[in-house]
UniProtKB/TrEMBL annotation:
It is a multi-pass membrane protein. It is found in: Membrane. This is DoxX family protein. InterPro entries: DoxX. It comes from Occultella gossypii.
Length: 126
């Protein structure tokens, strides 16, 4: 199970780090032109940048504390933070009637929940 947690955590870390970097570094107007990115128009540019920064930090927080063995208890905390972001993302997508995108967010939520459960419980670093 530890191997599965590491693999899923690594993949999620990369996904959220690069997704956050895109939100942080790309102007809002350019993000809004991307396919299925209409949600961007519902939020301010500052919020999108802040969301990108939080996603990047959580992506780093999924891996770095455990790899460096410095405060590895932060791994499940980062997973919980990303879980909250995914719940919010699913709600936004459902309000926009984008059910497919909401389901994708819920799939990410399921993987994040697995990581949080595994690192808080049976395969914790503490």
């Amino acid at each position: 199970m530890n191997l599965a947690l590491w693999i899923i955590t690594g993949l999620l870390s990369a996904v959220f780090f690069f997704s956050g970097a895109g939100k942080l570094l790309t102007p809002k107007e350019k993000l809004a032109k991307a396919p299925a990115a209409g949600w961007v128009n519902d939020f301010s540019a500052g919020f999108i940048k802040a969301l990108g920064a939080v996603e990047m930090l959580c992506g780093i927080g999924l891996i770095l504390p455990a790899v460096l063995d410095i405060a590895p208890a932060l791994v499940p905390v980062a997973a919980v933070g990303l879980g909250l972001i995914m719940v919010g993302a699913a709600i936004v997508e459902l309000r926009r009637h984008a059910v497919t995108h909401a389901l994708v967010n819920m799939a990410y939520l399921a993987l994040i929940t697995f990581v949080a459960w595994g690192r808080f419980g049976p395969e914790s670093f503490v």
